[in-house]
Amino acid sequence: MKKTLLVLALSALTALNIYAKDNTLLMATTTSTDNTGLLDALAPVYKQATGVELKWVAVGTGQALAMGKNCDADVLFVHSPAVEKKFIEDGYGVSRTPVMYNDFILVADKSLAPKFQGKSLAETFNIIKNENIKFFSRGDKSGTHNKEVAVWKSVTGNAPEKEMWYNQTGQGMIATINIAAEQKGVTLTDRGTFIKYEDNLKGDSPLVIVSQGDNSLKNYYSVIATNPDNCKDTDIENALQFMNWIVGDDAQKFIADFKLMGKPLFTPDAKIRKD
């Protein structure tokens, strides 16, 4: 009798585990989709539409891709196109799909703003280097860090690393912005996270935008399914369902309408971008 009850209990537990897997999607994503509140707002809408609960871990894009490579997530929501494409080429992901974009901006303490007024992106970065102005980098191989390094290389030929004025926080975007504010320095951030930072301070930010609008500063987000050939237990069915949903009309409108302080944080581009 006890043996029969144990078998029944194990069968019930197995059924519950299968049910939980079918109704939960595990995502690894960049900090900006989390910090801005976009996923907190999007998740209940997705659950209502599909019955699937979205759970996520917010890290830098490099760490998110590593989670996909290690079979620790079913779907990835990231923003570093070059490394995403390499991830696909190496066989770790499938069906990379454009979702939205915003842009990167350079923000600095208000006292520093006059130094950069009217300057180009290249001129601004050269001023930071030549005047040893405190610069705060995430230093975490995130999409933002990758972009920052690319800008340094394009402007000065190489990225700073051990210079006294160059500080690598090893932290997420909000934390890095806070450190830059405390130290009266400069940092590169995505616009959406900076708007969230401003909103947290009720618009009374010690940092202001000192460089924006350069063509190289577009910030593109895509979703990628973990490759089932590499991760046999990945929930590819739910991953593809989410990917199809987030590029659909309802989700794209939701992203377009998602604002803080009356400002849009992201622009949907699933129907436009081909990359």
From TrEMBL:
<feature type="signal peptide">
    <location>
        <begin position="1"/>
        <end position="20"/>
    </location>
</feature>
<keyword id="KW-0732">Signal</keyword>
<dbReference type="Pfam" id="PF12849">
    <property type="entry name" value="PBP_like_2"/>
</dbReference>
<dbReference type="InterPro" id="IPR024370">
    <property type="entry name" value="PBP_domain"/>
</dbReference>
<dbReference type="GO" id="GO:1901238">
    <property type="term" value="F:ABC-type tungstate transporter activity"/>
</dbReference>
<dbReference type="InterPro" id="IPR053775">
    <property type="entry name" value="TupA"/>
</dbReference>
<protein>
    <submittedName>
        <fullName>Substrate-binding domain-containing protein</fullName>
    </submittedName>
</protein>
<feature type="domain" description="PBP">
    <location>
        <begin position="21"/>
        <end position="249"/>
    </location>
</feature>
<dbReference type="InterPro" id="IPR052738">
    <property type="entry name" value="ABC-Tungstate_binding"/>
</dbReference>
